[in-house]
Amino acid sequence: MRTSSTFSILFWIYGSRVIDNKSNIYVRITLNGKRVNLSLKQKIDIDSWYPKRQKVKGNSSNARRINSYLDDVKSELIQCYRDLKSERSVLTPQLIKSRYLGEDKREHTLKDIFEYHNEIMADKHSSKTQCHYRTTQKYLLTYLESKLNIQDISLHELNHAFVIGFESFLRGFVPKHYRKKIQNNAVMKHIQRLKRMTSLANDIEWIGFNPFVKFKLKLEKKERDFLTGHELSSIEELSIKIERLQIVKDLFIFSCYTGISYSDIMDLTEEHIIVGIDNNKWIMSNRNKTGTPFKIPLLNKAEDIIHKYRFNIRTRYSGKLLPTLSNQKLNSYLKEIADLSGIKKNLTFHMARHTFATTVTLTNGVPIETVSKLLGHTKLSTTQIYARVIDKKIGMDMELLKLKLG
Fold first, then answer.
1. Bridge partner list, 285
2. For residue 146, what pLDDT is reported?
3. For the segment 12-44, what is each residue's pLDDT rounded down to a tens digit?
4. What are the Cα distances from residue 50, in Å, to 17, 40, 202?
5. Phi/psi of residue 176, each to 5°?
6. Which of 127, 164, 201, 223 is buried most deeply by CB count within 10 Å?
7. In angstroms, what CA-CA distances link 31 with 5, 6, 146, 208?
8. Pairing of β 34-45 and β 22-31
């Protein structure tokens, strides 16, 4: 298929910036409908400008000097365009301007765009999200060093082959802290972050193409695991004498009846408990992950756990609402609680949030719009995954009913 580009150069004066009837001459570089302007620092009387010919009128020495300069500028810009066109397949007016000004001597690299992103997004992303980007950056640098034998790569060298090579590397990579291969959805999340980096580079005109144009993200749909009412009761009724397991049990049950995630629970203080519009106690805060506000009326079982630790030595000195514990230890101790409760599922702390959405709220008739607000979701579609789980449960319950009725 034949392809062509439209490249043009226009000299003009800025009529709205005239001072004492004088204005600077500008050059406009246009390529495929995109344009960029550059001041040539040449001031002339606006009456001496000939717009149609893009020249200074007359044959004075000053007019000849400026017109000769404009011819040189045009020739240099055309040469920059030709040189860049021979060097890479995709061009932008900004690249031509940078080459003319001598600003493109060092091309921007993969490290550059990550550093730029981490700097401008420092106050926009949560610390957890920033941590995810740093992990992706670390894996990319490991890929460059171990597979390509380089420390960094120019953004203009990124292409479809690089993307699928990175994907292949991730699928076989075993991080030291993880001890097993990265699963498909985690691989896709890292690819997704790389895609956002290249989109950002395109937006700020560090590159003029999209390396992901042929790549399709393949996320696997996974149902959210949760505890049934019976399983939740078995944990609640479990008698534990070991203090560390008792604390973990209480934190898990608290999350089951509030839907609050681990990181948000660890940040809760007395200040987050307020009297709501209904004159009852609510927990109000913002999600660490997204910054989205959440407001949750306190159910009795959650309030009882708060009272239990109100004067506990662990909370008195930390200033927190509940005892604090690392996420790693929390999930490790939950495996012991699962064994003691006879639960065969892979019990994790995040399962408590899923249990709140399904067993505690949706199953008991709480509208999905309300559940979405309680969970602090920004989109209703995020909450609808739980509705599909409930539909499946309803189907299973009806099958049991059919068997009973014969």
1. 294
2. 92
3. 998 777 888 888 999 999 998 888 999 998 889
4. 17, 17, 37
5. -60, -40
6. 201
7. 7, 5, 39, 12
8. antiparallel
Q: What is the DSSP string of 319-344?
A: --SS----HHHHHHHHHHHHHHHT--
Cβ burial 34-61 (10 Å sphere, 16+ → b, else e): eebebeeebebeeebbeeeebbbeeeee
Q: Which residue would you say has higher pLDDT here, 392 or 141?
A: 141
- The CA R_g of the chain, rounded to the nearest whole Å, is 31
pLDDT band, very low/low/confident/very high, at 1 (cuts 50, 70, 90)? very low
Mean per-residue pLDDT, 353-375:
87
Q: Please, what is the Cα angle at 165 between 161 and 167, to 5 degrees?
A: 120
If you average pLDDT over every residue of the chain, what do you get? 86
Segment 192-203, tens digit of pLDDT: 999 999 999 888
For residues 113-125, one letter each, b for 16 or more C-beta atoms within 10 angstroms of the residue's C-beta and e for the rest, the string is bbebbeeeeeeeb
Query: What is the architecture, at CATH level 2, of domain 229-405?
Result: Orthogonal Bundle (1.10)
| φ, ψ at 235 (rounded to 5°) | -75, -45
Give me the phi and psi of 2, to 5 degrees please. -75, 130
